[in-house]
Design a protein that fits this description.
By secondary structure, this protein is an alpha/beta fold. The chain folds into 2 domains: 278 residues, Aminopeptidase (3-Layer(aba) Sandwich); 113 residues, Alpha-Beta Plaits (2-Layer Sandwich), CATH 3.30.70.360. It contains 11 helices and 16 strands. Strand 1 and strand 2 form a beta hairpin. It is elongated, with a radius of gyration of 24 Å. Keywords: Hydrolase, Manganese, Metal-binding. Its cofactor is Mn(2+). InterPro entries: Amidohydrolase, Bact_exopeptidase_dim_dom, Peptidase_M20, Peptidase_M20_dimer.
């Protein structure tokens, strides 16, 4: 492992920043304190800062030399609306908010890279412009999409853009980088089934929407097993069913909601169409009616082939080829996908280990993301920062084809 010595020397300072951000989590588009901290540090390193994209977004630009070449590096800043079970000193100080996905670590790794890039700039160490993108609202709200709508790549053009996410279960010191789909699209559905309420003792005088929901729930799974191509991956999960208020009353309606994940637009189009048909016709079979709603939140995250090969080569140079593995696609979603739709790039995964790094006072649950016992592994900070810096150096040292 060939980390950058000057970044390793800043490990303690980076850890303090990461833990400070962890202790003060902020939700989507509310990352004011985090953005202030990011902007203050960047400014202290003489990095020009632009603020206000997607409300709380921060973009710093490190320019060196006379080249017009560019590269973008992105980190997310927001936390999740959930309670933290950890009780170590840097646990969340705000009830109902937690950095349970490692965005505190992602932000800090990019800050570590920014500090080193400023050193290189002052020494004339590269020729080009690096745009450091600190994005709000990845978890909820599509902060990447909003930054793009407000002109992110118009104001800060990038030949390519790279991002990184920690991955529990992958050993510390390993990276997972692959071309093609690596994360699924994130979509939501809602079915409102309208029947006819009545007395529970006289169901023949009512149209009960609850059995309709049960039949519909089962029928949805046949879309996965019988309509979708067997080699295409997709998931339909019913996660909420709400009906009724009194035990002896058949309700007028039942509302069913859930999530759909898929890797390709073609598969998603098929699922949406068939779910609508199933909902409407299944309800009609029972004499009820259904209103089907479908919302597409985030598209699939698809890494570009050339940029993925480039990132993989850089990671192999830093961590060794034996420590760069192929990332099997997973069904979680990520709004970095919006950036990859506009600019070529790659989303890499850095191993967060299995949780043994957690301090005394952590919760008893596993160290998985979106888990109240999660904590980012601070050992990753110089690794991720070194990877980002080496990406920049190699990018500008490699002529464009």
């Amino acid at each position: 492992m060939q980390l950058i010595d000057t970044i390793v020397a800043e490990h303690e300072a980076l850890q303090a920043v990461r833990r400070d951000i962890h202790a003060h989590p902020e939700l989507a588009f509310e990352e004011t304190r985090t953005a202030d901290l990011v902007a203050e540090l960047l400014t202290g390193w003489n990095i020009p800062v632009h603020r206000g994209l997607a409300k709380t977004g921060v973009v710093g630009t490190v320019r060196c030399g006379s080249s017009s070449r560019t590269i973008g590096l992105r980190a997310d800043m927001d936390a999740l609306p959930m309670a933290e079970h950890n009780r170590f000193p840097h646990a969340s100080r705000h009830a109902g908010r937690m950095h349970a996905c490692g965005h505190d670590g992602h932000t800090t790794m990019l800050l570590g890279a920014a500090q080193q890039l400023a050193r290189l700039r002052d020494a004339g160490g590269f020729d080009g412009s690096v745009h450091l993108i600190f994005q709000p609202a990845e978890e909820h709200g599509g902060g990447a999409r909003e930054m793009l709508r407000e002109g992110l790549f118009d104001q800060f053009p990038c030949e390519a853009v790279f991002g990184m996410h920690n991955m529990p279960g992958i050993p510390v010191g390993q990276f997972a980088i692959s071309a093609g789909p690596v994360l699924a699209s994130n979509n939501e559905f809602k079915v409102t089934i309208r029947g006819k309420g009545g007395h529970a003792a006289m169901p023949h005088l009512a149209i009960d929407p609850i059995p309709v929901a049960g039949a519909m729930m089962q029928a949805f799974q046949t879309i996965i097993s019988r309509n979708k191509k067997p080699l295409e991956t997709a998931v339909i999960s019913v996660t909420m069913v709400h009906a009724g208020e009194v035990a002896n009353v058949i309700p007028d309606q039942c509302v069913m909601q859930g999530s759909v994940r898929a890797y390709t637009a073609e598969t998603l189009d098929l699922i949406e169409r068939r779910m609508r048909e199933v909902a409407e016709h299944q309800a009609a079979v029972f004499g009820a009616s259904a209103v089907f709603e479908f919302k597409r939140n985030y598209p699939s995250t698809v890494n570009h082939a050339a940029e993925s090969a480039f990132a993989r080569s850089v990671a192999e140079g830093v961590f060794g080829a034996q420590n760069v593995v192929t990332q099997a696609p997973i069904m979680a979603a990520e709004d970095f996908s919006f950036m990859l739709e506009q600019v070529p790039g790659c989303y890499a995964f850095i191993g967060n280990g299995d949780g043994e790094h957690r301090l005394p006072g952590h919760g008893e649950g596993p160290c998985l993301v979106h888990n109240p016992s999660y904590d980012f592994n601070d050992a990753l900070l110089p690794m991720g920062a070194s990877f980002f810096v080496r990406l920049v150096e190699r990018w500008f040292a490699t002529p464009r084809g």
